[in-house]
User: Which sequence fits this backbone?
């Protein structure tokens, strides 16, 4: 084994796509979906209020992997056109300059995955016709040999693992597919899947991976939970490999989600769009023995942009040439700071183009064009009294809408002035991928145009 004395720590970052924090048992979920991550959390610091402010994957990882906000990255849409701005350095680029060997598994070609030494892909999708999808084991099959290769080097390493199991299609292998369901998913008296399969933009995609004739939404939710549990079991192999290689004490290990998932929430079926809490709130757990306290739960607010400064702080990498929009979380862990900003700007640009402002008490959502769910152009929710966000108060509380709108536009103006760059959400022609249309002029046009999946 190469000598490790006086060298910087390794970093293993597990970026988990579509993982709902509230469907993890270490975050209080009633089902035991994450027993291995639960044990990992007992050895780590767990953050209870981490937010993905910029939905979806492309913009979320752009913030997570750079330490910058959406104004600095200029990455706001799923189908971002072009590379990440050259002025923005990724974590991989920074660490490579510091002598790290860097490998990316499962995230080739994304703007924010720039700068790794090596890229490895794996099968992270699936369909009903292909059978059950062992996504996490497919990742392990390529990641564990790579971990062994990196462990033999004298240089520290950064290994980024993008897990896809909680991202639809939810097709966990046996026995996980029925771990949380014991019923008849084809009961014709159950009508809960009718609105799901009636949603024309997604129904062909759903039909490509859901059991033909399924009627019970709870079965599909149980598939999601089973996929999380299957991934959790596979992740244990990564922890075991670190321990077997004698790396566990010298490695910063992070579990973070890019965004959450809407299951049967807000009519945004089994996807991750809508600026609602199931999509915005993500897990963050950090383990680094001796430097990060074990068994601590941190209640302060933080965002993706805070991760890179935190990792560089832990690795004792000091660079005068680097400036981040985020801040290290270590003062919060030590109790020196109660929270980072508790109100903040939010965006989404996947299937709907919207932005908003979230405070501890209130959430404002403003549509920048009509959406394919025919939702109202302005939504306001009282998060204290209505945490499920079921009652839109925009019409009955116009003064609160006005105040939150003022704060949002003040922040936009401030960040545009500080960066010298425009708010990217305002200028995204063709953001949806439909040819010949820049922006939708009606919800009906959006509904008739947007589509995923191949017709049966």
Assistant:
């Amino acid at each position: 084994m190469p000598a490790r004395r006086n060298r910087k720590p390794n970093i293993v970052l597990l970026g988990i796509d579509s993982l709902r924090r509230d469907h993890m048992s270490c975050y209080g979920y009633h089902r035991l979906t994450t027993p291995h991550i639960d044990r990992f959390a007992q050895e780590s610091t767990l953050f209870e209020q981490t937010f993905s402010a910029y939905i979806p994957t492309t913009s979320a990882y752009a913030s997570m992997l750079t330490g910058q906000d959406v104004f600095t990255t200029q990455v706001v849409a799923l189908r971002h056109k072009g590379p990440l701005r050259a002025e923005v350095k990724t974590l991989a680029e920074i660490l490579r300059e510091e002598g790290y060997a860097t490998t990316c598994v499962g995230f080739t070609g994304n703007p924010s995955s720039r700068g790794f030494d090596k890229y490895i892909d794996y099968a992270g999708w699936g369909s009903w016709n292909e059978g059950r999808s062992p996504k996490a084991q497919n990742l392990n099959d390529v990641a564990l040999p790579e971990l062994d290769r990196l462990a033999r080097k004298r240089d520290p390493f950064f290994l980024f693992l993008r897990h896809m199991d909680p991202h639809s299609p939810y097709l966990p292998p046996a026995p996980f597919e029925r771990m949380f369901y014991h019923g008849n998913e084809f009961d014709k008296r159950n009508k809960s899947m009718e609105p799901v399969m009636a949603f024309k933009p997604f129904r062909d995609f759903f039909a490509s991976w859901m059991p033909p004739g399924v009627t019970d939404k709870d079965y599909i939710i149980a598939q999601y939970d089973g996929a999380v549990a299957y991934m959790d079991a596979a992740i244990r192999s990564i922890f075991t490999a670190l321990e077997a290689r004698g790396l566990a004490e010298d490695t910063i290990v992070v579990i973070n989600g890019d965004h959450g998932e809407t299951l049967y929430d807000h009519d945004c079926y089994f996807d991750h769009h809508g600026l609602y809490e199931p999509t915005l709130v993500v897990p963050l757990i950090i383990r680094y023995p001796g430097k990060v306290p074990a068994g601590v739960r941190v209640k302060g607010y933080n965002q993706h942009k805070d991760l890179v400064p935190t990792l560089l702080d832990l690795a004792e990498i000091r660079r005068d040439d680097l400036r981040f929009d985020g801040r290290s979380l270590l003062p919060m862990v030590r109790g020196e700071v109660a929270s980072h900003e508790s109100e903040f700007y939010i965006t989404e640009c996947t299937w709907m183009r919207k932005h908003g402002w979230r405070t501890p008490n209130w959430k404002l959502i403003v549509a920048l064009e009509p959406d394919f769910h025919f939702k109202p152009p302005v939504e306001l929710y009282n998060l204290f009294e209505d945490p499920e966000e079921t009652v839109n108060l925009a019409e009955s509380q116009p003064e609160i809408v006005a105040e939150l709108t003022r704060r949002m536009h003040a922040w936009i103006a401030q960040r545009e002035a500080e960066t010298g760059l425009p708010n990217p959400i305002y200028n995204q022609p063709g953001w949806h991928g439909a040819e010949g249309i820049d922006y939708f002029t009606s919800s009906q046009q959006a509904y008739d145009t947007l589509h995923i999946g191949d017709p049966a």
About this structure: The two ends are 54 Å apart (CA to CA). The chain has 13 helices and 13 strands.
